[in-house]
Amino acid sequence: MRRRRLARTLRRYRTQAGLSSDDAAQALLCGTGTISRMENGQSAEPLRVKHALEAYGAPADVVAEMVEIAKEGRKRGAMRRRYDDVLPKRLAEYYELEDEADAISLLEGEFVPGLVQIKEYARALIASYSPHVRPEDVDRLLDIRMTRQQRVTAADPLKLRILLGEAALHTQVGGPRVLRAQLEHLLDLTSNYETIETRVLPWAVGARPALGRNFTILEFPDPDDPAVIFAESVSYFVLEDEDDEVAAFRTAYNQLWELASDGAGSARLIEQAASVLT
After folding, report:
1. Which of 75, 131, 221, 228 is spaced 20 to 30 A from 206 at the CA atom?
2. Would you say 200 and 261 are in contact if contact means Cβ atoms under 8 Å apart?
3. What is the reported pTM?
């Protein structure tokens, strides 16, 4: 999140200074690609960050803070990550942001989200990603998923809002017994943790906002850090923190939350779906 704050700060002060990316590149004796990478969080050398913000007229305290963030980023980038070879870069960035979030709102149409999956359900889902996941990587990816779940039941747990399409209650990931165990686990979590809310969008709702789309909204404890939207498809992952985009996704999510069955009604739907599985 601090790296994203650095990128936003660079972009904001350049814009306030009335400089285009070409202007900034000329002033810093670099290419426009370097400016772009600095402003999208990919890379930022501390000395270049200092020179850029000074050229943009940023206050000294802002310059000092951003240089420290750039130094942290350089150290972190030099560290070898355990799962670099199995995680796409954008997905790894999402996991880092998830670690820093204190509230997450999830919309999934066809399956139960990773943060509340049981091991058997998660394994079946990960293995189904073939040919994009090599068989030898399934256990490593499963380990990542199970580790992420520790945030859900920690002493200071994540606040989760889980919004499921009714199809997620019937898609037999891992077979009927695994799905039943998964649905029972979801009910247990929702009933035992005040920080977890689950609602189901019945099929009868029909046409609705974001139909056919899944996304996640990450919220952070620092009010200066904007929410981040995460969405994925078969071949790409998108992270978005622009105010207008975040507002649009949040509005859609809140509308869907109101269209869904309430907590008690959603629990009944989940119980009914589990009861017919053997």
Report:
1. 228
2. yes
3. 0.78
